[in-house]
Amino acid sequence: MIFSSVEFLFYFLPIFLLVYQVSGRHNAVLLVGSAVFYAWGELRNAWVLAASLAGCYLGGLALGREADRRDRQRWVLVVSLLFQLSLLVAFKYLGFLADTLHDLGWQVSIEPGSVPVLPVGISFFTFHAMSYLVDIYRGQLPVERKLSRLTNYILLFPHLLAGPIVRYAAIRRQLIRRHWTVARLRFGMELLIIGLGQKLLLANPLGTVVDAIYQLDSHALTTALAWLGAIAYAFQVYLDFSGYSHMALGLALLLGFSFPRNFRFPFHALSVREFWRRWHISLSSWLRDYVYTPLGGSRRGGGRTIANILIVFGLCGLWHGAGWNFVCWGLYNGGLIVLERLGLGRITARWPRVCQQIYAWLAFTTGVAMFRAEDFAQVGTVYAAMAGWSSATAGAMHPGRFLDGYTVLVLLLAFSSMLPLSRWFGGRHFVRPRWAPVRWVFLTLVLVLGATSLASGSHNPFLYFRF
């Protein structure tokens, strides 16, 4: 079940919210509702989620028992983390490893491609479990002995399938006692509607353009089409994932929870380094706290810092997908951050602000081409075309054939996310009482258009469900 589906919005959510509020047993209803939400479309792999939860709970108890024996506690942590990682590797990376070994000429017992179906949300619920275990080991979190409470944390359906990655410490008290206000409920509904609009009205039309361009034969891919595909995909990823994050934050507010923001105007960044402080913040902070800092961060000299950055971003790419193109995408971003630390950042800092912003946006847009490509062959084809070395024939299609009036409007609206006005529209000013009539007319229009899109029967899952 996905947030932007008829089943969720018109059946599951209204019934769940009604029972949730009327029953008074919020945690029990939340646990059952979240289990139903996941099992609705993922019943055959629900045991993987259950195994991850069991490992998380038992690992936490074992860490608590060995609190006074640090060496034994360290081994408990290692075993617990390896269990979570084994689930992730078995279901997400086994095929990638088999294919890689097969390409290198190794004899592997696993046939390339014959691996289990990827359980939805595995990259997120295993990361939730690992952060919980590490925080206990570090003494930053008490052991949760109540299984139902920990289950609600892992299964909490607003963040279960595609994040944000919420630390247990951030919502532990909220799992015990939650507070509702009219303002929080209203804001939750607004975020839910805005996120739905981002997905259905903006991201999906751009996705149609991107899919059409990336299905072209190499002899039909012109330089203009390659750049149109990259630009459209950069905005599609942003609108799709930030739309999901807005819906997740909105749903959390309706349930009495408060999640941290996952995006902070990333296209306003003036450097690649700043971009990653604004983009998918929950993943960036997770990798910083649980990988980069334990590796030594920037405390062990310049060479070690560079290596740590590249390791973290290589893992970031691998987290996004089991393929070398994803690893290269991560290393590309890490490499740019290294260059900025080595001097590129001092050069770009002297540029006009708008030029710095364009540089950061272009760096991201150029990189997502390898993020979208199916394989290395397509990566090479796309980048060759973007560089002007297109092998397109004279009869290749004009970019205008992929754009209609509505798609052009969507692209213009997407580009407006780079303007200072978007801060005002997405910030506190627009939520002031004097703007309430305008805001509610806008939200009503988005809701009506979104419902119309849903009624048309179009189905397009969120991009991050693949991760």
Would you write up a description of this structure?
- This protein has 467 residues and is mostly helical.
- It folds into two domains: 6-178, no CATH class; 183-270 and 390-466, no CATH class.
- It is 69% helix and 0% strand.
- It contains 19 helices and no strands.
- The two termini are 16 Å apart.
Percentage beta strand? under 5%
Helix vs. strand class:
mainly alpha
How many alpha or pi helices?
19
- In percent, how helical is the residue content? 55-70%
Q: Could you give the distance between the termini?
A: 16 Å
What is the oligomer described by this structure? single chain
What is the alpha-carbon Rg in Å? Answer: 23 Å
Outline the low-pLDDT stretches. Answer: none
Count of DSSP strands: 0
- The domain count comes to 2
In short:
The chain has 19 helices and no strands. The chain is mainly α and 467 residues long. The chain folds into two domains: 6-178, no CATH class; 183-270 and 390-466, no CATH class.
Keywords summarizing the entry:
467 residues; 19 helices; mainly alpha
Layout of helices and strands:
Layout lengths: L5 H18 L2 H17 L3 H20 L4 H34 L18 H16 L9 H9 L1 H4 L7 H9 L5 H33 L8 H32 L17 H7 L2 H12 L9 H19 L3 H25 L4 H20 L3 H11 L18 H11 L5 H6 L9 H20 L12
